[in-house]
Design brief:
Strand content: 35-45%
Distance between the termini: 32 Å
Low-confidence stretches: none
Structural class: mainly beta
Oligomer: single chain
Mean pLDDT: 91
Number of strands: 12
């Protein structure tokens, strides 16, 4: 799709106010994706399809810790986008540690959502420019948790996209499921 120039107004209410995030993100392994829909600019309007027998993973992040942003970088004539999703998973459960050990070095696509009636759902990463995970763990007198950062491994010409397709099926939750509302 070719970009059509339009003038951009301020928006309604307080457009720059923080937006509450759904604490449950969806993690997809790039190798599990059967079809990734074509982008229409910064939108995807059809469904992401997973390979038969695979599911996504729901993961709780502390809502106030979630940051999703795209940063432009690069020398003149080489600019591109780095997509980022960061959040803190509280605690030190067996399940999160197994996930981290099993998926170090994997290529990821993430789906994040806002909490509102006009909530935006975004897809971060692509099959050609997946996200990579880094982890910083904390276990001290301040608290216990893991700061998880998914970041584009490569600069690309693609920003995170707005997604209106169906959210892929996710694996069943284990342990305390009180934070799974909305999934």
């Amino acid at each position: 799709m070719a970009y059509k120039k339009v003038s951009i107004a301020k928006g309604h209410g307080s457009p720059g106010a923080p937006k509450a995030k759904d604490p449950n993100i969806i993690i997809l392994l790039a190798r599990d994706i059967l079809t990734m829909p074509a982008r229409d600019g910064v939108k995807i309007t059809t469904n992401i399809t997973l390979k038969p027998g695979t599911v996504g993973i729901g993961l709780y992040l502390t809502p106030s810790s979630i940051k999703r942003n795209d940063n432009s970088e690069g020398d003149p004539d080489k600019e591109g986008w780095i997509q980022n999703v960061v959040g803190v998973h509280p605690g030190d459960s067996l399940e999160v540690n197994e996930f981290l050990e099993a998926n170090l070095g994997e290529d990821f696509i993430l789906i994040t959502k806002e909490c509102s009636t006009a909530a935006s759902v975004k897809v971060h990463g692509s099959l050609c420019a997946p996200l990579k995970l880094t982890v910083e763990e904390q276990d001290d007198s301040e608290g216990v948790g893991k700061t998880l950062t998914w970041k584009s491994a490569l600069r690309s010409n693609e920003k995170s996209v707005f997604y209106t397709g169906v959210i892929p099926t996710i694996a069943e939750y284990t342990g305390d499921t009180s934070s799974t509302d909305g999934l």
